[in-house]
Amino acid sequence: MITYRIEGGLGKHIVFTCFLKGIFEKHGKFNVISSYKEVFENNPYVENSWLDIEKDKSKISEIIFTEPYKTEFEFNEKHIIESWAQLLDIDKSLITDPMVVLTEEEIQKAKEFQPDGEFFIVQFSGGQSPAGWKETQEYKQTKMVNERNYPFQMAQILVNKLRKKYPKATIINCSLPNEYNLKGTIHIPVNFKSYFEFTKHAKGIICIDSMLQHISASNDTPTIVLWNRLSWTPSHKYGWKKHVNLEEDFIAIDYDDVLYEMNRLVKKK
């Protein structure tokens, strides 16, 4: 059976799910080897989802590996979706929103942890893999991570303003517990897949270029993404058009502009 290999971070894996329908139209069901097998489990287009050490060679006829980061995508102005679709030879009419399928048990578990009443979700830091994460590990903030992370003090001010605007709403901090500890937010000890359920019911989302912006692209919940103009990941190549993408030097992004956009989106919902 045709087998696709995907490498990289969780967000990149979620982006790849946009092509599953198109691959199925070409080959029928196929296998996936990846670092996050949960992303592809239960998907109607995927036969088997394996970690590399789990792959069953008897069920593999050919392995296909496409890596947009190692092509002219590095220096052109194409979006990651367009570049990857070209490598996979997938027609744009077959590209879908991110598609991660939860079991009924996973949905029910997410609902158990979902706050009562209105809630927002924020993510202002990232760069760590949730796979194998341990509470004792150090948060290593490399230059690349820091370029995308919204500064902690600014994140706290934005959270304070969001709480003042929506005093009855809960704010979920999607960051891992050893990252930003923002007052007025809560951490929820769940697998990343639960956020595919949470984002469906959230009042709104404010995040950086990390896992959450890709998860929220699977639905139409109002989402604002804060992009550092100085980062190596520009919004026109890595962002989603359905989101409001605010791209500037972080210090130049006005808190009140963020809240204005969120209020506008919430009213439209």
Notes on the protein architecture:
The chain has about 270 residues and is of the alpha/beta class. It has two domains: about 1-95, no CATH class; about 105-269, 3-Layer(aba) Sandwich (Rossmann fold), CATH 3.40.50.2000. It is about 30% helix and about 15% strand. The protein has ten helices and nine strands. The chain has helices at about 10-15, 20-25, 80-90, 105-115, 145-150, 150-165, 195-200, 210-215, 235-240, 255-269, and strands spanning about 1-5, 30-35, 45-50, 60-65, 120-125, 170-175, 205-210, 225-230, 245-250. The strands form two sheets. A five-stranded parallel β-sheet has the order 6-5-7-8-9, with helices on both faces. Helix 6 crosses helix 10. The radius of gyration is 19 Å and the shape is globular. It starts with a strand and ends with a helix.
CATH fold assignment of the largest domain:
Rossmann fold
Helical region count? 10
Strand order of the largest sheet: 6-5-7-8-9
Report the principal-axis shape: globular
Helical proportion?
Answer: 25-40%
Query: What is the assigned CATH homologous superfamily of the largest domain?
Result: Glycogen Phosphorylase B
Structural class: alpha/beta
Oligomer: single chain
At the first level of CATH, the class of the largest domain is Alpha Beta
Please report the distance between the alpha carbons of the first and last residues: 43 Å
Count of discrete structural domains:
2
Q: Mean pLDDT, rounded to whole units?
A: 93
